[in-house]
Every structure is written in C-alpha cells, then in structure tokens.
Design goal:
By secondary structure, the protein is mainly alpha-helical. The chain contains 22 helices and five strands. The strands form two sheets. It has a three-stranded mixed beta sheet, with helices on both faces. Strands 1-2 form a two-stranded antiparallel sheet. A hairpin with a 3-residue loop joins strand 4 and strand 5. The longest helix is centred in the first third of the chain and has 35 residues. It is globular, with a radius of gyration of 23 Å.
Length: 526
C-alpha cells in the first residue's frame, strides 16, 4: 500500500470515528471480542513474516499493505468498544485479555495518525550527516564511530559535529510531537502521559520515583569504579571525561580475545544445556545463523505464532558485544517458545518489559564472576577480576542512564520544567557521573523513544536483577550450571506475557519492583 493510500484510509477512518462517544456501538459480546482478536492476530502474523523476510533476506516489508481491509479494527471506535466491554464484564481474565488487545489497537491508531510525521523525521534523520575535516559520516553511525575511535581528540570532533545536526532535526521532532498530541486527544486521553500510562500498563510517575530512588541508592557506589574503569579501559583521568567517551568505554575491546567468534555458538549451546535447554532441539524455534549479503547483523526474535512458530535471526560476531547480543536475544526466543499463555493477547501483546528482562537475565551469565573463572580461561586472573567489575559497572551505568531518561520524560510530559535542554543536561550529568556540556544538552531532542520505552528497559533491568538475586539465593552462585535453576526460569517463562511486572515481582517475593535486588547483585562486584 502506498503511503498516500495509508493516509487516505486514515482520513476515512477519522471521518467514521467522528462524533460523540455516547453514540458508539453497543458493547461487543464475547464472540465479537474473539473475532477482533482473531483479526488482529492475522495481521500480526502477516507482519511478523514480512519482517522476518526483510531481516534475513533483505526483502522490503510493506507493512502498510497489511492494514488494507482492517481499518475498522484499527480505529478509535474499536478502542472505545473494547474499553466499554472491559468495564462491563467483571471476569478478571476477560478484562486482562481485552486490556492487552485494546493497547495494541491504540498503538496502531497512533501509528496511523502520525505516519506522515514519522516518515518525515526518518527522511530528515537519514539525510543528516557529520562533517569532520574532509570526511562525511551518516548521523546514524555516530555511536559506532565514537565507540571505535581510539583518538581522544577525534571523539571530541565527532561530538561537536553531531551538535550541529540536532537543530536540523528539531523541527521534524516537534512536528511529530504535535501530531502525537493531536492523536492523543482524538483517542480521548487528556495528556500524552495518561495515554503512555495506559500503553505501558503502569503509573509512570511512580516509575520515575523508583528511578530517582535508584539514582540516590547508586550514587555512592558508582563514581569510584567509573574512575577506575577510565584508567583501565581508556587510560585517562576522570577530569577529562566527556560524553563522547562513553560509547568507547561501553565498547571496550580489551576483553574481546576471550570471546572469539568461532566458538560463540558452541559455548552458548553449552550454557543453555547446563540449564536444561537445547535451542537447537526445539522444533518450534527456527534459528537462522547463516551469513548472506542482505541479512542484518543485529539479532532479532520474531514471535510469529507463540509458541508454535518462533524465529531468531543472528550472525555470530567477534568479541564481547557479539556474545552479549546472542545471549540476550536467545533469552527472548527461549521465552516465547517456552510460553504457554492461552491466547494471542497474553502471548504477544502484554508488557514487553518481561521479554527484555529474560534477555538481560541470560546476558547476565556473561558477567557472573563464577562463570568468568571457568569460561574465560584466555584471561589472566587479574583480567578476569577486572572484567567482572567492568561488566557490573556497565550494567549499573545503563540502568542509571535509563532511570534518568524516565525521570526526564515524566518531567517533560508533566510540564514540570520549561527549559528541557537544561533538565536533560542536569539529569544525564548525574546519571553519567560527570557534567555534560551544552552541545550534549541538545541531545534531548533525539535521545528519547515513543511512549516511554525507556521505562520498559529500566524496569527490565530491575526485574532481571531480582530474578538473578533469587537464583543465587535458591541455587547458589553457580546457578547457571543447574538444571533445577533452568526449570525455575522456565516456570516463570510459561506464564508468557499474562502477568504484569509487579505481579511477577510479587511471585518473587517483593510487593513492587524496585532497584534493591539489582544493587545487591552488582555492589559486591564493583
């Protein structure tokens, strides 16, 4: 479907949805909800298959075409009908399923309404380039360039060049923000924050408070290991630290010799077998590890039909980052193929925080000091100790960074401070442990994801930390070698996306998810 047709369909959709909410159709019966679910699942499956072909073969995915003849389903009218149905049916299981289906519909409607602005932002972003000396680079490659750049001064130049592009992107970002605000009102929500609360299934103001507490609790344990890591990994003093150095610090090549590409797949298979899993023997999991010209390098999981058709694409990559990517993504795939949730909504449309958490949990094996001692024999004892501390610091930094992003975005969308650049600069400076400069302050325009994806990542790190702590307490420090620990993980995975994050946290012994467990896991390693 051409973009013009998408817009035309959406305008027709708006015309059909105009009018007073009181004039909407009567509450759908259960059979109507079943029909909506089946229709939504059909579109989902078609999209996943298209995306799989695009990711693994390079075949362009025309997702807009998949909405043809489904304009009634993906409409604000349907979202209202589902809300009414949910409110008039007291069955908790039915309410949960309808709530998840409604969130999916809301996401799609907002995507429809803002498609033109999203396309324009993508166009402007792709057109932006960095000019350093006589060389020109795509803006999208900035982090990779900084990570690979060994020269301190050269990283400064890249940072300054990037600052010149932020203003060029600002108008496209603001146009998208205005379009999202308009879509929010048409859907009947009073604010962006209210809609985001519904879409993420949580109170984001409360998540911001948890984030602030996490920052308070980790301030005393963060700065000293950061200073030490700078000397160990980058060989310069903390006073010289700038934001441009963070990608290089997080992409340290010092330990890559311990993570060769040729044994990645075998080593990962061994790790999974120790837990009682064998991904290669799971008939419902299709793994594409072949190299081909148009295949994307980044791993990705496609839950086509959970749990019967789950697919994972990856290319074995050299070094620590390649290993981290596989362990993390395999956690996603294992989750979906293990899920036994009874319906499409609970299999695919629940809180994706759970998916990310299982990825972080499996990735955490690579930083476990006891795993390091037996698996990374190419490192000396001192290097192993330094590596374990480095991984703990990296996990802590990323969690702090996303805590700051949540705090910034909640304050932004609550209109708590007019100077957003200054707010971003202050919060991110605290998260990083050093002062960001005025150029980096302007990154607030580009350093955010739609509808608080930052909150999902932040909570996923906390949930993974809680799971890791419980595994250590129950099965010992070498839990990653225990089939009983694997069975424990699988028991939670079988719940699929049915539980909320806080419900899963209560199953793990805490009332609400917070950062205490993650801190308890990381602090001894720092």
């Amino acid at each position: 479907m051409k973009r013009s047709l998408v817009v035309s369909l959406f305008l027709a959709l708006l015309a059909a949805c105009a009018g007073n909410g009181a004039a909407l159709d009567t509450t759908p019966q259960k059979s109507d909800v079943d029909a909506m679910r089946d229709e939504a699942y059909g579109v989902w499956k078609q999209q996943q298959l298209l995306l799989w072909d695009e990711w693994t073969q390079g075949t362009p995915a025309n997702l807009a075409e998949t909405f043809r003849d489904h304009e009634t389903l993906f409409s604000s009218r349907t979202a209202w009908r589902l809300l009414r149905s949910m409110n008039e049916n007291s069955d908790p299981a039915f309410q949960r399923s309808v709530r998840y289906l409604r969130r999916h519909i809301l996401f799609e409607v907002v995507g429809y309404e803002t498609s033109a602005q999203q396309d324009e932002l993508a166009r402007v972003r792709n057109a932006e380039s960095l000019k350093v000396g006589d060389q020109t680079f795509a803006l999208s490659h900035l982090n990779t360039l900084m990570a690979r750049e060994t020269d301190y001064a050269r990283r400064r130049e890249l940072q300054q060049a990037a600052g010149q592009t932020y203003a060029n992107l600002s108008e496209a970002h603001l146009q998208l923000d205005r379009a999202v605000a308009a879509a929010t009102k048409k859907l009947g929500f009073s604010s962006y924050l209210e809609l985001a609360n519904e879409l993420r299934g949580t109170d984001l103001a409360e998540v911001s408070r948890v984030a602030e507490q996490f920052m308070n609790d980790t301030d005393p344990i963060f700065l000293a290991p950061l200073k030490q890591a700078l000397m160990t990994e980058l060989s310069f003093e903390f006073e010289q630290m700038r934001h441009a150095d963070m990608p290089r610090l997080l992409w340290s090549v010092r330990y890559d010799k311990a993570f060769p590409q040729d044994i990645l797949s075998t080593s990962h298979a061994v790790s999974m077998r120790q837990l009682g899993f064998s991904l290669a023997d799971m008939p419902n999991l299709r793994i594409d590890a072949d190299a081909r010209a148009n295949k994307r390098k980044r791993p990705r999981t496609f839950p086509v039909a959970v749990p019967n058709d789950v697919r994972m694409s990856y290319l074995p990559q050299e070094g620590l980052r390649g290993w981290e990517a596989l362990y993390h993504e395999a956690g996603h795939a294992l989750f979906y193929v293990t899920s036994r949730a009874p319906s499409f909504e609970l299999q695919a449309l629940g809180d994706q925080t759970l998916v990310y958490a299982y990825g972080f949990l499996m990735q955490s094996i690579l930083g476990n000091p006891h795993w390091v001692k037996t698996a990374l024999v190419r490192l000396t004892a001192d290097e192993q100790k330094s590596y374990s501390k480095y991984i703990a610091l990296k996990r802590l930094f990323l969690a702090r960074r996303y805590a700051a992003k949540v705090m910034f975005e909640v304050a932004w969308h609550s209109n708590q401070q007019p100077d957003l650049a200054k707010l971003y600069q202050n919060l991110m400076s605290r998260a990083h442990g050093f002062r960001l400069d005025e150029v980096d302050a302007q990154r607030w325009l580009v350093d955010h994801e739609p509808f608080f994806l930052s909150a999902q990542f932040f909570r996923a790190w906390l949930l993974a930390g809680l799971m890791e702590q419980r595994l250590q307490q129950t099965f010992g420090d070498r839990w990653f070698e225990s089939k009983e620990a694997g069975a424990w993980i699988a028991a939670f995975m079988r719940k699929g996306l049915e539980p909320s994050v806080d419900e899963l946290a209560r199953d793990l012994g805490v009332q609400k998810i917070d950062g205490k467990a993650l801190i308890a896991v990381l602090k001894p390693r720092l």
